[in-house]
Amino acid sequence: MEKEIISLAQLKEGYRYNSDSLILADFILNCGIKNESLDVGSGCGILGILFKTFNKDLRLSVIDIQEENIKLIRQNLDKNHIEAEIFYDDFLKFRTEKKFDFIVSNPPFYRQDACKSENIHKNISKFQSYLPLDEFISKANSILKPRGILYFCYEASMFDQICVALEKKKLKMTKICFVYTDQNEKARLVLVQARKSVKSSCEILPPFFVYENGILSQKMQTIHSRFRLKSYDF
User: Fold this and answer.
1) Which InterPro entries does its entry note (predicted)?
2) Which CATH number does the domain housing residue 168 bear?
């Protein structure tokens, strides 16, 4: 039976999802996600929509700070017949009595020395000053259930700072995967699974190459095949 195409509206001039979102979604689905789950900085809603597509019983919540994204999320949820609780809020100021089993995010991780755009929507979606790493991890920790799991991706060169930030909040890194554009380049991204209140060892997964010998890798081709996405301008 052919998989249903997932249709996603995106802002023509704003930040648009890229391969990082697909690689992170694949990583998370392979590791596992269920029960009460929160997608932080949801953007157009791609991560949550992919998770619900593959796990209909997931109780999904999404949060985003930008009104344009909330409109996109509502449209994309409706278009793909997916239910979720939507929060239009700054994650760092977010107040809720609910505790989550899983928190997932493709957070802004560009450093201040990177070239900023004149487009504020893109800047908020890309630069870590809008959601600093330490504050992001601290807030996530505060609303995770005991033994809850935090999934996120980040710039690989900041791996040492990720380790320190997680250690401060007693979140144990339990799985990591480094992502490379190809075999001859430095890792550019790290995928992280961290768990609250556990003492598990950390599993370092095989490296992920987007390209191999200048050709889209088999892993990346498999992801594109797994997630049948069609985007259109909003």
Assistant:
1) DNA_methylase_N6_adenine_CS, SAM-dependent_MTases_sf, Small_mtfrase_dom, tRNA_Adenine-N(6)_MTase
2) 3.40.50.150
